[in-house]
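In this supplementary section we document a worked example of the pipeline. Step one takes a protein sequence of length 81 as its only input; no multiple sequence alignment statistics are reported here. Step two produces a three-dimensional model, which step three serialises into structure tokens for compact storage. The input and output of this example are shown verbatim.
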Amino acid sequence: MLNTERIEINPKIMLGKPVIRGTRIPVELLLRKLGEGATESDLLDAYPRLTREDIQAALSYAAAALRHEEIMLLEQAEPIP
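The serialised model returned by step three reads:
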């Protein structure tokens, strides 16, 4: 379930990047940190205003964004001998 109440997109905050509402913590930052191996606990310690629900909302937001992504497969050209 996408919890849009926890994600905010405002051109006056972080140049319009999706952030956790009421903070300047970008969704992208949380995803990058998780991808680098940070744990939920690490994030909660590093960002005291962050909650578990915020992290879940960031993950749901990313999944929803990817769900609508379109991929175009191009036929690969044969190599020139």
